[in-house]
Amino acid sequence: MTTSSIYLSKSAMEQRLNAFERRRAAVLVGLGVLLILISLLSLVGGAVAISPGQAGAILAKLLGIDLPWTYANEQRAVLLSIRAPRLLMGLLVGAALAVSGAAMQGLFRNPLADPALIGISSGAALAAVAVIVLQTSLFAIPSQLLGRYLLPIAAIAGGFAVSWLVYRIASGNDRVDVGSLLLAGIAINALAGSATGLLVYVANDDQLRTLTFWSMGSLNGIAWADMALAAPFLLVNLLLLPLLADAMNALLLGEAEAGHLGFPVERVKTAVIALVALGVGAAVALTGVIGFVGLVVSHLLRLALGPDHRWLLPGSALLGALLLLCADYLARTLAAPAEVPIGIITGVLGSPFFLWLLFRQKIMGH
Amino acid sequence: MLTATNTSVRIGAKILLNSVSLDLHPGEVLAVIGPNGAGKSTLLRTLSGELSAQSGKLLMNGRPLAAWPSQEAAKMRGVLPQASALAFRFCVMEVVMMGRSPHRQSRSHADNIAIVRQALALTDTTHLAERIYTTLSGGERQRVQLARVLAQIWEPCDPLHRYLLLDEPTSALDLAHQHAVLAIARRFADTSAAGVLAILHDLNLAALYADRIAVLHRGRLITVGTPGQVLNSELIRQIFNYPVTVGTHPLYPDRPLTIPHLMRTADTAKWETN
């Protein structure tokens, strides 16, 4: 090792590191542009035809500007009270699910830890379903106290309880055991499934329709009131998780190592689990269980951006929103005017991807 | 000084450390030796704040270990684990940069990069800087982790001293890199007045690089002293349950050289039943 060789490699190394940073930035910008395009597409596409010009005119009118496109009142109502809240909800839910998935995978040090796969979503859904069916009986008093907030709060509490349980089961001896992690997920999904079955058995017809929707997930029928209900929780998830990026990077080295680097490991773990429960719980409360978003998004992004959470979390927010809006667009248009539940679309796209991941882990031997 | 006084650690009913008192002085290399299960790693994990002791007193630079804010402690104490769980595809530069986490607020990005580069050069890993960590060999990973830990405690924190705790730092390394790692630790102790504690299995490496050797057996500290005082055939036979001859190194007369005897098949059976 000579001094000259260090200095020779210095500039080359720095150039390539800078190129890597630029590539990461370019990926984020590209995702942002695609997200804007798909957002516009979701405003104009659907059962009621609205041209881009008309959409522009309707939105401009809100700001008091008149544009030369004419539109019917029906089109205005569809755009402003159906498509706009649905679009925003899709953005927030997709972003929160993907960021939560990336965070969970960091915490478990394993790329298979999707919130739906390891039972967090079904825990949240079970709590939400219990509230729907038992609102007038068992939950009469909390329902009067909390009103519409009971549903998301119950879902968040359910999500938190399950995350904590799964974490306890899977992380013994400082190593997260993937086998126990996935088995715990299977057990919790099964338990939640049979509890939901029981609730279906006692539910009335109205409740049955709602329950069906829980099991599949959908952005259908999201109104501004739903948005207002869920948005604060989703935004807390989206804004606070990236602040823990450094600590999550250190956690990938191992919990003891993160502690030696000066991170308050126990507090970080609790904060990540709480924030994930907040995001996933709120998402599930309003849109049901939408699986595989966290899994697919953060995995694809690790290939493009590397595993550094400071890039991965913002990237996941963008790609998660993008993916969910694409899936929702397909859900609305594939069988128009009928709708396919969005959870079915993400499931159809996500399951083969998951199998491919498993296969790849197997042949790569870790 | 990093001190443990009458420190005992129990997990369940099992006593892992039994009233151990040991000082790690600034500027010294202290090797910890002992058979498997003697409590070496437990001692290191206790000094690193990872395990809490049921009884006894632990002090770092005159203050109880638990009383140091974790970020302050991280600036003066680096810990190299036996093996790292890192399974994500970070490049080596990023891994070593994680060592700078405690300094993110106090130092500029350029300073941190410069220190990372020096740590890479010191551990002979500059050529690996852009490689993906998970594609490295075991020995390369260990050197990269050492670079990360050195980068963490790179700058002096005067008037306080720094400490480097190494858990079997040479286990995955070839001959030259075993010596290189201990030479780095030696130089770090000499030039930075840092206290280095290293768990070692190779008695000759311990004899060559350590100022003092501590011998642990069944959770107790048996003895601690210079290699010449500690390493003798009787003690080693008792502690490791194995016959050796201890001579002096032909090049360095003050350094003992431990030569194990041949294990005969008859002994294998006896050893296995022990």
Protein model, in words:
Chain A: Keywords: Cell membrane, Membrane, Transmembrane, Transmembrane helix, Transport. The complex is a heterodimer of chains A (366) and B (274). Chain A contains 15 helices and two strands. Chain A is mostly helical and 366 residues long. Chain A has a single domain, classed as Orthogonal Bundle (ABC transporter involved in vitamin B12 uptake, BtuC), CATH 1.10.3470.10. Chain A has a two-stranded antiparallel ribbon with strand order 1-2. In chain A, strand 1 (171-172) and strand 2 form a beta hairpin. The longest helix of chain A is centred in the first third of the chain and has 42 residues, at 3-44. Helices cover 35% and strands 26% of the residues of chain B. A six-stranded mixed sheet of chain B has the order 6-7-8-3-9-10, with helices on both faces. In chain B, strands 2-1-4-5 form a four-stranded antiparallel sheet, covered by helices on one side. In chain B, strands 11-12 form a two-stranded antiparallel sheet. At the A-B interface, helix 1, helix 10 and helix 11 of A face helix 2, strand 6 and helix 3 of B.
Give a nutshell description of this structure:
Chain A is an all-alpha fold. Chain A has helices at 3-44, 52-62, 73-108, 120-134, 140-146, 150-170, 178-202, 205-216, 224-240, 245-253, 255-260, 265-287, 293-305, 309-333, 342-364; strands at residues 171-172, 175-176. In chain A, strand 1 (171-172) and strand 2 form a beta hairpin.
Write down the overall mean pLDDT of chain A.
84
- Poorly predicted segments of chain A: 1-8
Number of helices of chain A: 15
Using the coordinates shown, work out and report the CATH topology of chain A: ABC transporter involved in vitamin B12 uptake, BtuC
Count of distinct strands of chain A: 2
CATH level-two architecture of chain A: Orthogonal Bundle
Strand-pairing-aware structural class of chain A = mainly alpha
Shape of chain B: globular
Radius of gyration of chain A: 22 Å
Q: Structural class of the secondary structure composition of chain B?
A: alpha/beta
Helix content of chain A: over 70%
Rg of chain B, rounded, reads 19 Å
Termini separation of chain B (Å)? Answer: 39 Å
* N-to-C series of helices and strands of chain A: HHHHHHEEHHHHHHHHH
